[in-house]
Request: fold
Amino acid sequence: MERRIVSAIEVAKLANVSQSTVSRVFTPGASVSEKTRKKVMKAAEELKYQPNALARGLITKKTNMIGLAMKDIQNPFYHEVLGLFTRKLKEKGYSVLFVYTENEEIQQEEINHFLEYNVEAIIVTDALLSSNVVTRLTANNIPVILFNRHDKELMCHSVVCDNVNAAKRIGSYVYGQGVRDAVFITGKVNTSTSRDRQNGFIDFFRDKDTDITILEGDYTYEKSFHLTRNMIQKGHIPEVIFGANDITALGALDALKECKVEIPKKTMVIGFDDIKMSSWPNYSLSTWAQPINEMVEKAIDLVTLKDRIQEPELIKLEGKFIHRATTK
Amino acid sequence: MERRIVSAIEVAKLANVSQSTVSRVFTPGASVSEKTRKKVMKAAEELKYQPNALARGLITKKTNMIGLAMKDIQNPFYHEVLGLFTRKLKEKGYSVLFVYTENEEIQQEEINHFLEYNVEAIIVTDALLSSNVVTRLTANNIPVILFNRHDKELMCHSVVCDNVNAAKRIGSYVYGQGVRDAVFITGKVNTSTSRDRQNGFIDFFRDKDTDITILEGDYTYEKSFHLTRNMIQKGHIPEVIFGANDITALGALDALKECKVEIPKKTMVIGFDDIKMSSWPNYSLSTWAQPINEMVEKAIDLVTLKDRIQEPELIKLEGKFIHRATTK
Reply:
């Protein structure tokens, strides 16, 4: 059965207005008098008119679609982020065109999707874009917002938690608890989140003339679990393990428990993100909570600003430390 | 800076072909001779032409967009599902328009999004649609596929794991282990997944003239944890707890551990889904693995079939039981 598409022209005729008036009535945010809106809606209802966003997108050059590129769907942190983005964008009248990428650096062909549909902005979580991709998007007047990542070489906005400062404060806290033998398990080393957290932690201890041990993780539970277990089996039981994110910390925590290390008495464990699982009684993981509500809102503000800010902005938000059972 | 949009007309001129030929070159699946394709691509490359899917969608009535409505982003099962859908759809040339719903029954206004963008099909995971919504979509010739849900009153295709049979087999297994005191913790009771698993489990034990205890969960860890802890504190330690999904089972497992119940010796625990967390050493949860790879592929087949099957199909796939440390 072919779709019987009622056109805006028919609605305009019935309502006795112009076609562009009809278009305005169905464009979120466009200004139309209440009287006109009622007239048009009445006609549309009678004819069962379905506004065509494709057509509107061509005419007005506004599609109300935002491209959202997400990597690492496995990490619960990004599930919460995805839920917040889609809900808050929806409240503002936007649809989400979703691309799942497996690359740390998003390539041209993945972005083509977004370009073909004339998205109004692109939000990239947990990944970067190659600089020629950014250049092309900027040339097309499409703002790009990096979420939970930043890179000063790229002409993009970024919204992040102040990872460096948070890691310093974590360093300060454990040092205050008497820790002189700390281990940091990295995430993927080529990500700004892992680098910033590592640098903040190292910087703090360097100022205290104290060395720390760095183990190279990859943001997975499994790697962290094995690194920790190996370390303990070789006889090194540190006073604290700081994991680059909660998933990393949970892997370390389970390895310590398997090796019967008393937590937090012998070894404290700290994560980063405050995913839901961290509050499960069995884990009760101390962690740094990223202010994701606020981060998502700032990112959306950057997308929806009337006067597009041309200079790339780096917005850093604070978050807070959550004490649970894995710290003293 | 205004976007300088190169039109298909300009490409056609330069390549010395018709505009509809240009359109066919950029439409996935459309047939075009290799010689023509090269000519057009060369011209497009020179002019830096960006195919406009909006325009193509209007002209061809095919947008290559699939609407994906998802609820319950918290459950790791759906993260894996989302990743599979977006990846496999992308391989077939489709984009995903993503809607996150908070309603158990998706309403008209959420579907309007999809209609406005002329999506070619809608896949709904973990939720139902109201029947008037389904009727409207069918009238617009848009197939709807329910994933991990079914409802015979709705004219939709469904792809599910055979939950009833799986639950019977779990019943059979534990009965064979000597269990006569079993507890089932439900998910959300108005979902077909929870109902089917409960019915399969109950049916098995009814045939053996054995009662089982049903506790009403809601697919969250927290509810299951509290139900289990209360039950144990009141003195009832069952021989098995079967949770309607893994998240439910993990809540029960942690409560049992907190109450120092020996697992699996005193109480076995079984979940459903086989999310990643279930294989973490600390949990090592026995569970029924849904064949999600196959389920996603079947759902996509239903979307992409050339001859649209009009009769709603219910596709049930099997999966398998995974023994880990929480069963004997």
Q: What stands out?
A: The two ends of chain A are 68 Å apart (CA to CA). Residues 164 and 200 of chain A are 4 Å apart (CA to CA). Chain A has a mean pLDDT of 88. Residues 76-91 of chain A form the longest helix (16 residues).
